[in-house]
Amino acid sequence: MKRRVLLSWSSGKDCAWTLYTLRQDPAVEVVGLLTTVDATHQRVAMHSTRREIVEAQARAAGLPLYVVPLPWPCPNGVYEQAMRTATEDAVERGTTHIAFGDLFLEDVRAYRIRNLQGSGLAPLFPLWKQPTDQLARKMIAAGVDTVLTCVDLKKLPASFAGRRFDLGLLADLPPGVDPCGENGEFHTCVLAGPMFPRRIPAEVGERAERDGFCFADLTPAAVGEPGNPTRPKTGKTT
C-alpha cells in the first residue's frame, strides 16, 4: 500500500524539491500541500509569498492546497493548535505521512517529530542531511527557477532580495551563508522546475525593509503574459 503523503509547503525551493523527490518514489502518493498563511495579509510567513501565487503553484502541481490561516502575530500555542487541527483533518482524509523540506537543523526536526506524536501521521524528511552546496547546484541544474523573496539583513545585503537563485548568486554569497539558506539567511518562492508542468506567471515588484529583513514582492503576472521571465525591477540581476 502506498504511503499517502501531505507535504508541508512554504512556496520555496526546498519544499518544491521535496515534491519532486517524493514523486520519484513509486511507494508514495502525494495527496496535497499544507501551508500556513497570515490571515490578515494573506501571505506565507517569512517567505511573504502571496496566497494567489501559492494557489497557482498547487494548481500547477495538480494537488489540493490546504490552507491554515494564522493571526499575526501568532503565539506558538495558537500555531500548534491550528496545526493539530490540520493534522486531524488530514488523518480523516486517509493521509498517513507528512513530509518536510528540512535539511539539517536538528532542533526543527525534533520539534516537528514531537508535535506529530500521537497524531496518526508519521514524519518524512526526504532531503535530510543532503550537502546543501551540492543540493543547491542540483536544483539549479534541474531547471528550478526561484526568486529570493526575503533576506535577513544581518546575513545578506538588501540587494539580494529579488535575485534569482542561480550559480551567480551562489558565487556571491558571503562566507558562512548556507547555499540553501537553511539557517534563515534567505527565503524563496519557486516559479518553475521539474515539479511543475508549467511556469507560475509572476513578476518581482517592489522591495521593502522591515523588522531586520528585506522583502521582494512577487506579484501574479498580467493575464496574457504567462511564461514571462521574472526579473527584479530593483537590485542586482544575474
CATH topology of the largest domain: Rossmann fold
Radius of gyration: 17 Å
Helix content: 25-40%
How is the biggest beta sheet arranged? 5 strands, parallel
Number of helices: 6
The assembly state of the depicted protein chains is single chain
- String of helices and strands: EHEHEHEHEHEHEEE
CATH homologous superfamily of the largest domain? HUPs
Alpha-beta content class: alpha/beta
The number of domains: 2
Q: In which order are the strands of the major sheet placed?
A: 3-2-1-4-5
Number of strands: 9
Mean pLDDT: 92
Query: What CATH architecture of the largest domain would you give?
Result: 3-Layer(aba) Sandwich
Name of the level-1 CATH class of the largest domain: Alpha Beta
